[in-house]
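Hello,

Our lab assistant flagged a job as stuck in the queue for most of the afternoon. It eventually completed. Since we weren't sure the result was trustworthy after the delay, we are filing this so someone can double-check. Below is the sequence as submitted and the structure that was eventually returned. Let us know if re-running is recommended.
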Amino acid sequence: MRIAVLGTGMVGRTIAARAAELGHEVVVGTRDAAATRAGDWSDWAASHPQVGLAGYAEAAADAELVVNATSGDGSLPALTAAGEENLAGKVLLDIANPLDFSKGLPPTLSVLNDDSLGERIQRAFPRTRVVKALNTLTADLMAHPRQLADGDHSVFVSGDDAEAKKVVTELLTSFGHTDVIDLGDITTARGTEMLLPVWLRLYGRLGTADFNFKIVR
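-- returned structure --
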């Protein structure tokens, strides 16, 4: 597939590298490509020459699948910059979490209970097929799940479009995920986003991000 990964941080780079490794045509989208190249991007790009870099709109325009790997508070601005027409009809894998750092650490959630970031994105882009997934584990395990318990742990997908969830599930399976649970429509993203307070406290207690949830049934 032609995949646009919006976001140049750790999550974006990890997903982009893994997708490219699996043979997908990958472009990372950023707000300002020139400014990104002037930073530490060049060192990373030298090790991943198959991954392109472009502005948000350019990256999204030719993509079949768009990945939102931006920070939660930056998601809607980034997607707006990508362009409603460039996102229309496309599958959008939303990994972001609505973390609020305004009161220090650990962060709280800026959206919860009766709404979610995933839902806000779907409302803002009604012609885009939003699928929430991969927001409940650290970036390296998103891309390389088999390094922990040989992949014997769970991830979730939420979305209104069954075919879009199938596309995302196939991508996750290709990454090595062995238990992808379809929670239902996009409102179920509330549950996975609200796992973050538990995840953050486990991270603090365990002293490592190399863990995940497993649903035993």
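-- support follow-up --
The delay was a queue issue, not a problem with the job. The result is valid. The chain has eleven helices and ten strands. Strands lie at 2-6, 25-30, 52-55, 65-68, 91-94, 99-100, 108-109, 129-133, 154-159, 179-184.
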